[in-house]
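Protocol step 4 of 5: obtain the predicted structure for the target chain.
Materials: sequence only (see below). No template structures provided, no constraints applied. The aim of this step is simply to have a reference model before the mutagenesis design in step 5. Sequence pasted as it appears in the construct record:
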Amino acid sequence: MMAAVAAGESTVTGLLEGEDVLNTARAVKALGAGVERTGPGRWTIAGVGAAGFRTPTDDLDFGNSGTGARLMMGLVGGHDVSARFVGDASLSSRPMERVLKPLREMGVAAETAAGGRLPAVIRGGRLKAIRYAPPEASAQVKSAIMLAGLRAEGVTVVEEKEATRDHTERMLRAFGVEVGVQTRAEGGPVVSIRGGQSLRAIKGASVAGDPSSAAFAVALGLIAGECGATVTGMLDNRTRTGFFDAALQMGADLKVEGDGQATGEETMRIIASASGLRGISLDPALVPSMIDELPIFSVLAAFAEGKTKVTGAAELRVKESDRIKAICAMLSANGVAVEELPDGFIVTGLGARGVPGGGLVQARHDHRIAMSALVMGSAAKNAVAVDDIAMIATSYPEFFDHMATLGASVERDGQ
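Step 4 output (C-alpha cells):
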C-alpha cells in the first residue's frame, strides 16, 4: 500500500504471498500502481507519487482480508477517486463503521450495505485533519486514519485507548514520513501525522516473518512429541508478541535470540521444545498483542494442567467469525471443557497428551480456527477433522508444508 503511493519504484523481498496480500496487490494495481512479481516473495511496485490514485474500472475485491479493506479505505479516502469495496461472505459480515466514522469526519464519502458492511463505495477528495480517540483498541482504525491523514490538511492525531500494533508508524518512517508518537502516563500513545508529506520509494525492503503464522509452529513444537520447532526471522515487536509471553507464563520451554532487522523492525529466532504447561489467568493487558493468536492459545490451554482464563477479548466477536463461540465449539467438539464468557473463555486443561480429540470442527470461514484445530489434532489422542480448509491460504499458504516438516500428518479429502 505504501509503495503504491510513494514516488518511484520500490522492491520488496520476503513477502508472505497469502491471498490477503495478493488481493491487496491487485487492488493497488487497479488504482494505478505498477505491480510485478519477480520471484518467490519478490515484488516490484511502481508508486503513483504526486499523481495519486485513479478510479478503478472494477470492484476492489479484498476476499477475506479485513486489514486490507479497512486500511485501503483510509488510503483511498485521500485521493480524488471513487472505488467499490467488496469481499467474501465472511468479510461482508464484518463491521466497517468503526473505520468509516472517523474517515467521514475527515471528509471521506462512504456508502455501505445495511449495518455498515460491505459492499461499500468510498469517494475520496479534499480531507481535513481530525483528533480522534477510538472507543476500542484497534490498529486497523488507527492505521486507516493515519493513511487518510497523509493527504489531509493539518495534523491528524489519534489518541489510543491502549497500545496497539505499530507497524504502520514504523513503515511510514521507513518511507520517509515523519510520525509523532507521544507516550502518556495513562492510556495508550498519542500518534500524529502532518498532512502533505510525500513517501519515497524503498529499494530492497524486506518483510519480517509473521508472528501470527509462527505461533502455530511454536504451539506444535510445545505440545506434540519431542521434536520441537525453530522459527527464524520472525518479527520482534512488543505489540505482536503477546502469545509468546503468555506461553512463557504457562511454563513453555522457549529460547529467544536476536536475528537481525527488516525494514524498521527487529527480528528474532525462537526455539520451542516440548513442554509441560500449566493454566494461567491471562493478563488482559496482553490481549491486544495476541488478539489473532487467541485461538491457538486456547489449544495450548487445552493441553495445560489446570484452568486458563481469558478476559478482555470482546474484539474476538467481530473477527472472521465470532471467535469466542468458534473457540468454545472447537474445544468442546474434542472433549475439552470450556466456558464461554462475554469477553473471553475459561478452558479446563487436560494436560500433555490428555485431549481426546476425534471431533469435527466447523471452521466458520475462519482460517485461524481451522489451523488451530489441525494443530490440536497433532497432539490429541484421536485425529481432529475440519470441515473446510480452503480459507487457510488467505494468510498462511505454506501451513501444510510446515506442518509436515514438523512431523504432523494431515490428510486432505481422504487422501
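Step 4 remarks: The two ends are 39 Å apart (CA to CA). The CA atoms of residues 26 and 60 lie 8 Å apart.
Proceed to step 5.
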